[in-house]
């Protein structure tokens, strides 16, 4: 049975939730290890057949430890079959929800030397009640500027779960069943 590592860099837990959904899809055909980016240093990446990294965006940026992890494991990542996706609220817009049109994914791929086998982007979630004062108001301002939802009591999940399932099935059918 093939082995898959799924590693997430999540700010509020939604990217972790997406990775859990992908794990559920793959676990019937692969031994899956699900880890946060903080725990991933303990993984022996050489022992995996496929590696998936999912990362959230906050204020237009990925977490610095994502880049540190990729740079540390660059040689292994470039030798293996891999996938990368990011999760952001901008992807809620049809014109910015593909790997070729999402500005954060494009910027990320220019910034790293890693060349994932395939990429995707998923719309995330905004949960105003969960945020601290500063984040709540900054995100509301960003949403106001980008014509998104601004109700401070609102929770808005933009994720297309069918698309997440398609991503998992692509890994399953194109990379793990061969």
Summarize the structure.
The chain is α/β, with parallel strands linked by helices and 178 residues long.
Describe the overall structure.
There is one protein chain. The chain has 178 residues and is of the alpha/beta class. The protein has helices at 14-26, 64-72, 74-79, 103-111, 133-145, 161-176; strands spanning 2-9, 30-36, 50-56, 81-88, 118-123, 125-127, 155-157. The protein folds into 2 domains: 2-124 and 160-176, Flavodoxin domain (Rossmann fold, 3-Layer(aba) Sandwich), CATH 3.40.50; 126-158, no CATH class. It has 6 helices and 7 strands; from the N terminus they run βαββααβαββαβα. The strands form 2 sheets. A 5-stranded parallel sheet has the order 2-1-3-4-5. A two-stranded antiparallel ribbon has the order 6-7. Helix 1 links the parallel strand 1 and strand 2. The protein starts with a strand and ends with a helix.
């Amino acid at each position: 049975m093939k082995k898959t590592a799924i590693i997430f860099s999540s700010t509020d837990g939604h990217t972790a939730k997406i990775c859990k959904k992908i794990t559920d899809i793959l676990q019937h055909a692969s031994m899956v290890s699900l880890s946060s980016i903080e725990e991933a240093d303990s993984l022996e990446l050489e022992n995996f057949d496929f590696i998936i990294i999912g990362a959230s965006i906050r204020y237009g940026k990925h977490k610095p430890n994502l880049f540190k992890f990729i740079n540390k494991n660059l040689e292994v990542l470039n030798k293996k079959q891999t996938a990368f996706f990011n999760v952001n609220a901008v992807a809620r817009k049809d014109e910015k929800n593909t790997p070729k049109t999402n500005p954060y994914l494009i910027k990320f791929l220019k910034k790293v030397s890693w060349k994932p086998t395939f990429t995707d982007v998923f719309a995330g979630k905004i949960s105003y009640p969960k945020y601290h004062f500063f984040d709540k108001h900054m995100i509301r301002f960003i949403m106001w500027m980008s014509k998104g939802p601004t109700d401070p009591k609102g929770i808005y999940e933009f994720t297309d779960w069918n698309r997440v399932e398609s991503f998992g099935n692509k890994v399953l059918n194109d990379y793990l069943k061969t």
